Amino acid sequence: MRSSLITALRRAVLLFPLLLGLTLAPGAQAALDATQEARVDAMLTELGKQTSLVFVRNGSEHTAAEAASHLRLKLSKTRKRVDTAEQFIDHVASKSSISGKPYEVKIPEKGTERADVFLHALLKKVDAEGVKP
Description:
Blueprint lengths: L1 H23 L9 H15 L5 E4 L2 E4 H15 L6 H9 L10 E4 L3 E4 H15 L4
Antiparallel strand pairs: 1-2, 1-3, 3-4
Helix pairs in contact: 2-3, 2-5, 4-5
InterPro entries: DUF5329
Pfam families: DUF5329
Keywords: Signal
């Protein structure tokens, strides 16, 4: 019994530095850097300007400005869990964190499309215009 306890303690002592290194290693924890944060901010600013767009969350319709505000709130709670603007769209901005239901956008003369498709296109647009952190 005592020898198995000593063996377990030795393993713990040997593994602790390794586990600590994994948790503190650069890049081991996700977080938006200044450039990625600027890309997300530019995309959300552009989203807020889409006056004819209707953003649908869990069956409720919202203006683009309301959607941008909601997504900024989600960003404030998740910015340390994503590395890129694309990850923000894919994992945070395109579906409800509570219901898991995908968001949609209604665009006049275009119809309804998934929010992730729309947001990726919007991100490409702001990237083409040039984003500075």
